[in-house]
Amino acid sequence: MEKKTATGLTNKSIYDPVSVLPKVGPKRVEALNGLGIETVLDLLTHYPFRYEDLGVKKIEEIEDKEKVVLSGTVLSDPVINHFAPRKNRLSFRIVSDNVVVPVTFFNQPYLKEKVQAGEETSIFGKWDGIRKSLNGIRIIGYSTQDYESVYHTSKHIKQGTIVRLIKEALKEYADLIPEYVPSYLKKRYQLVSHKEAVRMIHFPETEEESRQAEREIIFEELFLYQLKIQWLRKKNRKPGEGILVDYDVNRLRTFLSGLPFELTGAQKRVINEICRDLKQPIQMHRLLQGDVGSGKTIVAAAAIVAAWTAGWQSALMAPTEILAEQHMESLSELFSDMDLRVALLTGSTKTAERRDILAGLQSGEIDAIIGTHALIQDDVEFHRLGLVITDEQHRFGVNQRKILREKGATPDVLFMTATPIPRTLAISAFGEMDVSTLDEMPAGRKPVKTYWVRHKHAERIEKFARDHVREGSQVYIISPLIEESETLDLKTATETYAHYQHLFEPEYKVGLLHGKMSAQEKEDIMHAFKQNEIQILVSTTVIEVGVNVPNASLMVVYDADRFGLAQLHQLRGRVGRGHKESYCVLIADPKGETGAQRMKLMTQINDGFLLSEKDLEMRGPGDVFGNKQSGIPEFKRADLVEDFNALEAARSEAQQLLSQDEFLTHPQFEELRHYLGISRKKRNVFD
Ligand code: ADP
Ligand code: MG
Known about the structure:
binds magnesium ion, seven-stranded parallel beta sheet, binds adenosine-5'-diphosphate, 38% helix
């Protein structure tokens, strides 16, 4: 166990474990850790998520079931009444405003010690307007504040304990709270000191104080984040740490001019951006984002060809076998006139073939390998790996990059995604990457006609589906859940499947695809659909990514209001890939006004970027992208959309600061250098 140093003479640090605080034993430590609180600093930055208005009211003004604070004198010592096993009631009376009020607490017998006849107290509770009594929630003791901070808690630790610990920590550690934002910025943006801000956010005395605290804390969070990602980017882009792919521009041009179509302006621009990266001895970390159908594959192909002309191997990773196979098909076709040797390596590759492929990669006989991401993790060794491309990979990079480094290679890395991230978020989400955007569709693309109908018209849609299959087309039917759920009255995939089987079989074949199937089962179903052995595919969202079946021309989504706009757009992108006129029908009875609005947006907007901007406006980044998954950071206080102005300011200030040599030497930036881990005194602050 750590020694208690909170008041001792030894070196106190804001990074001391919470166990240094009084009355924090192993159990509390565990409870605090459960909330993500390990150090004193963590505790101090466990900010309240709202304030409870304690506005003490007159009893006659309180409404039934209203939560209030009543202050008064305790009339009688509390009595505990055990009315059932493990159930008890603590009751006493207080005099407040000359009215006697009975107070009851359930199952909190230990509060008995906190209440004594004759003492003043304040109790937070729910008013019972009929009995004229208070159902106690918490004893606040004697309070002078008008409102009280409310914290995220857990089963194992209570509000009161957190408040007490924070007070304790502030008393002992306030002076050690680091001031990261340099003083010139504090002045420029009129920010209070961080130490002040921390105190004020926990225990504001006025509303203005809580506002000031918020401003400072938000700016600090965004500034530190920007500084960190920009620093990483700078570090990643150190010359000499990557490889130089000295490609042959003429052979690349020959390849591009041999394509059956003219590249879009956006494709040309993006290929140039990538080629510029390849030619530098810097490791490329580039994100290629482009709407469904914008033609990312050809861009990947161009990069592979460029690497090949310089004698480097490439690897293209896809999240599923079916996608890997699709890429194999299109790339083999694109490379058919060239001596560029491509191979496919997935979990299904037979042992003997696999052995040959591994040998080919090691000897350099194979120029480009396509597969699932087991590609770079297994015993796969390359002769000269220069370029890694990952397709539709939502977990951007960090792990893969680590694996590659551990293999001792620093190939250029290109990430491709069809989930458009609005410009407003891109700067924060991908701050350490360069971003290329395909914002132009190939000419002659017919937009998918999108309709929204209510469930009561579902039968019409079934007829519509029949028309499609009768004409030889295929149909996707999307249903959000696989298992029956009583609370959410959703059509389940299995139910829907049975329904469509009943409607269409044996004349046509209906297939079912869902997330609980094994990878192999899924692949088999998808193959059957690709081969048109299945005409109607009922599926959960597992088909969402990248699947290309040009003969499918109708996408029906049940309970469409359950999906995010970005996701609906992805689903819609599964059709409209061939020559046929294609349709997307959203079946939904959305509850609120926004729900209806979202459905309407889908019918009006075909542009994925525009949709994601709208979605973001309506739902916020966490809901749209799922922070963890997308790599979009989570902040304690800042909100990437709401605080966009602060974000922009933080970004340009961080950029400016990093461009100054002084940053690495001047004492006033010592604290920030610690934060980035570039100080002599090393502190593991992040990661
Ligand atoms: P995505 O960005 O969704 O991966 P793909 O690369 O699969 O899109 O391209 C979709 C389709 O568009 C493919 O059939 C591809 O051959 C075609 N395509 C790509 N670029 C062009 C272009 N410049 N002109 C016409 N068709 C193109
Ligand atoms: Mg694609």
